[in-house]
Amino acid sequence: MTTKGYMKDYPRPQFVRKEWMNLNGEWDFRFDDQNVGEAEKWQEHLAGTHKIKVPFTYETKASGIGVEEFHAQVWYSRRVTIPKEAAGKRVILHFQAVDYLAKVWVNGELAGGHQGAYAAFSLDITPYLTFGADNVITLKAEDSNDCTQPRGKQRWTKNNFECFYVQSTGIWQTVWLEYVAEQRLDSVKITPDLDRAKVSLDYRVQGLETAAGSLRLEAIVTLKDHHVKTVSLAIDRPRLSVEVDLVHEANGPWKRSFWSPNQPNLYDVEFVLYRDEIVVDRVFSYFGMRKISIENGKVLLNNVPIYQRLMLDQGYWPDSHLTPPSEEALIADIDAMLEMGYNGVRKHMKIEDARFLYWCDVKGLLVWSEMAATFEFHDDAVVNFTKEWLEIVHQLYNHPSIITWVPFNESWGIPYILHDPRQQKFTESIYYLTKSIDPHRPVITNDGWEHTISDILTLHDYVETGEGFLKRYAGNKDPIVHKETTCNQWKYALAEGYEYKGQPIMITEFGGIAFESEKGWGYGHQVQTDEEFLERFDGLIQAIKQVDYICGFCYTQLTDVQQEINGLLTEDRKPKFPMEQIRQINLR
Q1: Could you give the CA distance from residue 575 to residue 560 in angstroms, rounded to a whole number?
Q2: Got the DSSP string for 334-393?
Q3: Among 432, 452, 445, which residue's Cα sits nearest to residue 497?
Q4: How many CB atoms lie within 10 A of CB 527?
Q5: What region holds the Glycosyl hydrolases family 2 sugar binding domain (predicted)?
Q6: What are phi and psi of 277, to 5 degrees?
Q7: pLDDT band at 518; cut points 50, 70, 90
Q8: What does the alpha-carbon distance between residue 418 and residue 122 come to, in Å, rounded to a whole number?
Q9: Parallel, antiparallel, or unpaired for β 133-142 and 101-106?
Q10: Which domain holds residue 195?
Q11: Please, which residues bridge with residue 73 across strands?
């Protein structure tokens, strides 16, 4: 079952309008290794040397180019006909993701740009357009091997190494146009308050300064086609808030309308903006009534403890790398995790396509949203990381499936956090900035080890056997959290100067078992048979469950990724075992 506003392949399912144009497909493309394009005015006419299939990067087979060598500057161009009927509307050009620096021209005029590989951005290109005619959109993307830019699992050397893979340069998510009114809804921040049976709507409205007449915004809330509440608000300033009481007869008992993995109930909400009672904008969205909290060393969902069975997922595909080949491919990955008995996913070192998060919302898969790391600590890295991370938290805030923010992982980009006050303060600042935007979700400041301030104490350990795990963890909570011993033979759970505050404890990377192969690697000894794999997998899962102070886990990982061959599925999504066997072990 989908939400009321759902449209297949619509790139932003949390904020849907009906008038839009998908610009994916064939674009002209050109490398610019000497960085001469702007001086030679390629923005006015790009003599493309290749055709590329957007949104796949040139490094991928799916793009039609498939060149893995790094090129620091690349150009794209395509013609778009803007219909005459759109005159009088504003035309918004959206890029869901461009890696890393983007500059955009329309008909040779600079329309704007953006920095950051994982956040979406939009430009009002109306002043540069000719309606009823062809228009040329040109984009220059600049990338680098600089480790002060958030890059996640993208390599910065010529070849893949360890767990780092082919880089992604340029457009790697959907490009699209939207036709909107001068007066329109810019965004809505939706905050559920489960304990009070209310939801807060924080509006941003565009175009008030040119509005001729009075504006009114209506929000129509429904649940499973039953009307819940309609609220109306006069618009007299660009930022307004309203609180909606959700207690109603059609809902039946209040608990039945909560969002959870077992019952991912979603409220539809239709926003209608009126100017003198004429509809000028209509947006479809949705929200889930759910609460994440922490009490007595447990993570609670809707005030009830939840044991999290997470899967680490890097979101790579063999022919398209970071870009999902289709919406169906995203759904298939979610279905596979649910079928194997997982109730959540840690999306590792990547901000995933908004459609993935939509289907996690719809299907009830919990999400830990993790930022792509920098790999050098420097003033530039602090600025680059902070700016992009805050954009992402704003953009993803409304997804009920996201229950945890993970800005840092395994001291990547903060290599001396154990004892360096600057790096420690950086993680503290990100923690508090995140909380200033979203005080409702846990934040993990350094997933794996060497935590500073963190709402959950998460540990990574690739010990091979259940017996080895129990020897290290059973009865050893105090020595681990008080830094009398390391958490995994080589890293301390907390950084120097930080004390354990009673946080929940989870094992958020373990396993990584691979079959014997010369083509890649896994963690520990490679196994030879299905029986050997399942015995080791089962031993680890049951050992973790036996340790009473551990309240969840995250297994590495969903699929093989390039040279890393430790997935439960192959890189092309073929199960290595019947999924039911994995499910039985997870749920036993």
Answers
A1: 11
A2: HHHHHHTT--EEEETTS---HHHHHHHHHHT-EEEEEPPPPSS-SHHHHHHHHHHHHHHH
A3: 452
A4: 18
A5: 22-138
A6: 70, 10
A7: confident
A8: 39
A9: antiparallel
A10: 184-287
A11: 142
- Residue 585's pLDDT band (boundaries 50, 70, 90)? very high
C-alpha–C-alpha distance, residues 19 and 432, integer Å: 38
Amino acid at 55: P
Q: How many helices and strands in the chain, by DSSP H and E?
A: 8, 29
Tokens of 312: 């680490």
What span, in angstroms and rounded, lies between the C-alpha atoms of 57 and 41? 23
6 within a domain of the structure (yes/no): no
User: Sheet containing 175-180: which strands, arranged edge to edge?
Assistant: 20-22, 175-180, 90-95, 121-124
- Distance (Å) of CA 470 to CA 366, 466, 488, 494, 542: 27, 6, 12, 21, 10
CATH code for the domain in which residue 188 is found:
2.60.40.10
Instruction: Answer yes or no: is pLDDT of 446 > 90.
Output: yes
Q: Would you tell me how many other CB atoms lie within 10 Å of the CB of residue 435?
A: 16
Which residue from 55, 209, 72, 220 is spatially nearest to 142, judged by alpha carbons?
Answer: 72
Please work out, in degrees rounded to the nearest 5, the angle formed at the alpha carbon of residue 96 by the alpha carbons of 261 and 1: 30
Residue 218 and residue 127 in one domain: no
pLDDT in tens, 359-387: 999 999 999 999 999 999 999 999 999 99
Determine the average pLDDT of the residues in 349-357: 97
**What secondary structure, in 3-state letters, does 304-327 show?**
EECCEEEEEECCCECCCECCCCCH
Rg of the chain (C-alpha set):
24
Give the chain's domain count. Answer: 3
Cβ pair 312, 556 in contact under 8 A: yes
Kindly list the distances between the CA atom of residue 345 and the CA atoms of 95, 417, 471, in Å, as whole numbers in the listed order: 25, 26, 27
Give one DSSP letter per residue of 401-462, joined into a string.
Answer: TEEEEE--BTTTT-TTTTT-HHHHHHHHHHHHHHHHH-TTS-B-SSBBS-BSS-SSEEEE--
| Same-domain check for residues 369 and 271 | no
